Amino acid sequence: MTVGDTRMATTLESGGVQVSTIEHLMSALAGLGVDNVTVEIDGPELPIMDGSAAPFVFLLQSAGIEGQPNLKKFLRIVKPVQIELDGAEASLEPFDGFKLSYTLDYDHPVFAAHEHRACIECTSVSFLKEISRARTFGFLADYERLKMLNLAQGGSLDNAVVLDESKILNTEGLRVADEFVKHKILDAVGDLYLLRYSLIGWFKGYKSGHGTNNGLLRKLLATPEAFEIISFDDEASLPPSFRHSEAEIEVH
Ligand SMILES: [Zn+2]
Question: What is the pTM of this model?
Fold first, then answer.
């Protein structure tokens, strides 16, 4: 299975079949620490739901998460790797846990009034509380262009934060003041999940999107000296951010 088109969303391809807009489900799976799952789908893309990962988190928690006897495998960053693509930057650096920093840079009045940067150590608890509910966002002008191309047909203010030239169109406003940058972190968590290992390292993104994040993973996998695959025999030797068991996670 390979990652295909990343212009608007991340698409997986295998045997001539494509499934797009997978990133928010991937983020939910990563945030909950799920690394063995079957997803059945009867269409070409995942439903966008409310534009965040929260509905997928709710469904996964409702279905239940089971521990398995095999040791979980982790990919630990041991040397920095970075990529620049069309003015965006993304990097992975060694860190004893899983941390993400992100910086937005849009020349737009709404972004000038909201937090551009966030840095969060990602645990199952912090993912649920601070990341999972952040909705995707977009610009009205892009949305109207997509409609003309027969894309984003289901797009509405129910599944995205939409901006015109000067303001947020959703009457309810943002869920949290830093929802924009938190959503970029949500996306990065999902993109990094495609490594197929839990990541021990620090992701830093500047304007990076799915394409840049995927390019970073490809560069990482082409740089064997930058990482190692490891397991831990006992929970006490795990990095602190991985020590939370599912039993500590509550449905909100
Ligand atoms: Zn997203």
Answer: 0.90
